[in-house]
Amino acid sequence: MNHWQKSLINGVLSGAISVTVLLTVADDDGQWGRTDVAGAAGLAAFCSGVVASVAARSPAVEAGLASQF
Length: 69
Description:
This protein has one domain. Helix content is 72%, strand content 0%. The protein is built from three helices and no strands. It has helices at residues 3-25, 34-56, 59-62. Keywords: Membrane, Transmembrane, Transmembrane helix.
């Protein structure tokens, strides 16, 4: 499995966990519906998971240079 596949899987898992938790604890009393908020949270968590995974595998991190910044 290559790095991009791992990053996408990380993003999918982050999104799934975020949506599941949000739908479990959210109520439907506000201006926005639960599905609207869950979609936004899922998309944000997916992007965050992918970017975090890619950043963790950057050449600076792997070379030990990230601690110098």
